[in-house]
């Protein structure tokens, strides 16, 4: 099977309001895919369903053949938009915890990344700034040797230097056996890192393809294409 | 997996509850020691009055020491009562934050079954409630037995004697075999009630968090009152069916006449409630979790 | 520092050009072992697959050759290097001419200008 993720007619309603409507798509293995769309387009909903945090209203979704559940969680690594770390733990505690629960967690890699960030493993999480906490979370997520990485707005509210660091972490941790889905509305920064893109709006896929072919065929960047497609 | 979950439950909660429980015991100990010192070295102006092994009053004279002692005693008692609430609050807060707060994003992406998560929270909750209960008993014991001891003594033998007398009377009344059975049944009942209560709290929080968009805590409280009332009503109805109308009018006589049946019925009822509620919560967590 | 790219051409082609220039200018001398695709991707801040595609382009043009296990090496073939340098220079000159003629300069005036500013 060449696709890591397949979903068919996936719909999600929140008290009658549709967040995803009959979404059908496949994500190939070994690529970095951009899930691009305006706020409220359904990107986060889709990712949370894939991560197993939301249950679909109708339709199906499988990750490497399995519906989201205990098994998929062991090979899917999810980075949410918010910080989910308990404030009482130290960095070393959370590393131990990830290592305890995820067999694919690479402790030396995590420690190396943290060292380069200048974060001491003895630091209490509550003493870290918001930006540093986000970086720590990224480290935890990328230090897993997962089959699918789901990054929800990883460069959302961060400064340019941090943005560069995050993109660098994604690039250096990438391997051909895994797939990375990055959801964002900041396209210019992320474009050079993507293999393919999916434009999503109002819970549906509006356009998809490879980044290079858009440039070759249309002579424009994904960012420019996005502006065209989503013109207000 | 369950062991790992329990490890992290313990780590998270023990750092507050261990000091709380130890602190309460320590305060009781301090109070008892100071009372003891005051009778030993001071004239008998400050006395705790005991009749038939029960503390009925403290005789004070108007001096600073007695004020201090009284204040300390009051603080001790407040601490003992408060410790129960603190333990309960911390446990419920842990459940709420770890499942339905931001931490939930981590909790529910761990490759762990929801039943394992729930079991860990249940075991942890019951463990600390029991430990807290033991802490309360120790603190009270320390205050009463050590603190009220008279001038030449270390412990107040009268209180201990009263207790052993109670047990003797029990065994004389019903025979050793039955007496032990009653004690076991009582312990079981306390245990199963702890489990059921914990689960009812957890159910209330779960429902409140899943149903309410805002004011989740308030909704949870409302849920708890409702659920508890419903559970209580069901229990009363079943007990009335089993024992007959007399249960409603005079349940003490029911207890006196058929204590074993009484115990066993309630143990069974609470066990059934526990199982049903556990399954319900697990189902909600598995299928209705919609983290914001 | 991440490399800069324009928006209307495929990124892998722009990367290939960037590396071509690096090779010609001696950043990667003839016979030198090139950094791995992963390292280059991190330096350029691009997708490793895209970098891989760029390197394949360079392999095809002969500027770079891949040794199975040891990696990619810059060619030592002086002819290829010379041809590539000339092709690049040619492109740059055409670009210059194209732009300056829109200002109304003839090719001769354009050439004179180059000599003049060099003084």
Q: Which regions of chain A are unreliable across 5 or more consecutive residues at pLDDT < 50?
A: none
Q: Termini distance of chain A?
A: 39 Å
Number of domains of chain A: 2
Portion in helices of chain B: over 70%
Structural class of chain B: mainly alpha
The profile of the biggest β sheet of chain A is:
6 strands, mixed
> Which regions of chain B have little confidence, pLDDT < 50, spanning 5+ residues?
none
Report on this structure.
The complex is a heterotrimer of chains A (232), B (292) and C (119). Chain A has 232 residues and is an alpha/beta fold. Chain A contains 9 helices and 9 strands. Chain A starts with a strand and ends with a helix. Chain B has 2 domains: 155 residues, no CATH class; 118 residues. Chain B contains 10 helices and 2 strands. Chain B has a two-stranded antiparallel ribbon. In chain B, helix 4 packs across helix 6 and helix 6 packs parallel to helix 10. The model of chain B has no long low-confidence stretch (mean pLDDT 85). By secondary structure, chain C is mainly α. Chain C is 61% helix and 7% strand. Chain C has a two-stranded antiparallel ribbon with strand order 1-2. The model of chain C has no long low-confidence stretch (mean pLDDT 89).
Brief sketch in words of this structure:
The complex is a heterotrimer of chains A (232), B (292) and C (119). Chain A is α/β, with parallel strands linked by helices and 232 residues long. Chain A contains nine helices and nine strands.
């Amino acid at each position: 099977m060449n696709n890591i993720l397949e979903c068919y007619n996936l719909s999600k309603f929140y008290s009658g309001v549709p967040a995803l409507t009959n979404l059908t798509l496949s994500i190939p293995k070994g690529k970095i895919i951009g899930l691009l769309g305006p706020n409220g387009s359904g990107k986060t909903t889709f990712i949370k369903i894939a991560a197993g945090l939301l249950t679909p209203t109708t339709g199906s979704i499988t990750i490497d053949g399995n519906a989201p559940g205990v098994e998929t969680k062991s090979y899917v690594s999810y980075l949410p938009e918010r910080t989910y770390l308990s404030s009482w733990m130290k960095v070393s505690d959370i590393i131990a915890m990830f290592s305890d629960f995820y067999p694919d967690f690479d402790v030396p890699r995590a420690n190396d990344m943290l060292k380069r960030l200048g974060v001491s493993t003895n630091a209490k999480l509550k003493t870290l700034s918001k930006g540093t906490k986000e970086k720590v979370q990224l480290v935890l997520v990328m230090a897993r040797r997962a089959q699918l990485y789901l990054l929800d707005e990883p460069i959302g509210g961060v400064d340019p230097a941090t943005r560069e660091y995050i993109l660098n972490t994604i690039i250096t941790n990438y391997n051909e056996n895994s797939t990375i889905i990055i959801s964002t509305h900041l396209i210019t920064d992320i474009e050079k890192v993507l293999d393919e893109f999916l434009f999503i709006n109002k819970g549906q896929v509006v356009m998809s393809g490879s980044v290079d072919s858009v440039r070759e065929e249309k002579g424009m960047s994904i960012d420019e294409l996005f502006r065209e497609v989503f013109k207000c | 997996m369950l062991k790992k979950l329990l490890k992290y439950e313990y780590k998270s909660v023990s750092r507050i509850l261990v000091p709380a429980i130890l602190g309460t015991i320590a305060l009781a100990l301090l109070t008892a020691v100071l009372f003891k010192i005051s009778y030993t070295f001071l004239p008998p102006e400050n006395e705790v009055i005991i009749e038939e092994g029960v503390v009925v009053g403290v005789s004070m004279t108007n001096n600073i020491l007695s004020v201090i002692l009284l204040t300390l005693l009051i603080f001790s008692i407040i601490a003992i009562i408060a410790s129960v609430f603190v333990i309960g609050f911390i446990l419920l807060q842990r459940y709420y934050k770890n499942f339905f707060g931001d931490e939930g994003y981590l909790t529910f992406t761990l490759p762990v079954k929801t039943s394992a998560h729930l079991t860990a929270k249940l075991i942890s909750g019951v463990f600390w409630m029991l430990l807290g209960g033991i802490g309360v008993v120790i603190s009270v014991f320390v205050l009463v037995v050590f603190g009220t001891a008279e001038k030449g003594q270390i412990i107040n033998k009268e209180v201990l004697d009263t207790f052993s007398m109670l047990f003797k009377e029990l065994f004389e009344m019903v025979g050793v075999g039955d007496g032990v059975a009653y004690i076991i049944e009582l312990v079981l009942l306390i245990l199963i009630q702890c489990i059921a209560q914990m689960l009812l709290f957890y159910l209330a929080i779960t429902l409140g968090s899943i149903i309410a968009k805002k004011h989740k805590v308030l909704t949870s409280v409302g849920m708890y009152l409702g659920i508890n009332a419903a559970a209580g009503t069901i229990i009363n109805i079943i007990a009335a069916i089993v024992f007959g109308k007399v249960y409603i009018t005079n349940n003490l006589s029911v207890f006196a006449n058929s204590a074993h049946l009484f115990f066993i019925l309630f143990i069974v009822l609470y066990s059934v409630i526990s199982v049903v509620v556990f399954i319900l919560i697990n189902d909600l967590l598995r299928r209705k979790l919609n983290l914001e | 520092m991440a490399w800069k790219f324009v928006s209307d051409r495929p990124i892998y082609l722009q990367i290939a050009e960037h590396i071509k220039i690096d090779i010609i200018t001696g950043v990667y001398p003839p016979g030198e072992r090139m950094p791995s695709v992963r390292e280059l991707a991190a330096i350029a801040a691009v997708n490793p697959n895209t970098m891989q595609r760029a390197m394949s382009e360079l392999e095809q043009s002969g500027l770079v050759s891949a040794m199975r296990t040891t990696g990619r090496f810059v060619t030592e073939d002086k002819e290829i290097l010379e041809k590539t340098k000339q092709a690049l220079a040619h492109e740059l000159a055409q670009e210059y001419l194209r732009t300056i003629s829109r200002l109304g300069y003839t090719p001769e005036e354009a050439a004179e200008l180059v000599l003049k500013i060099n003084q």
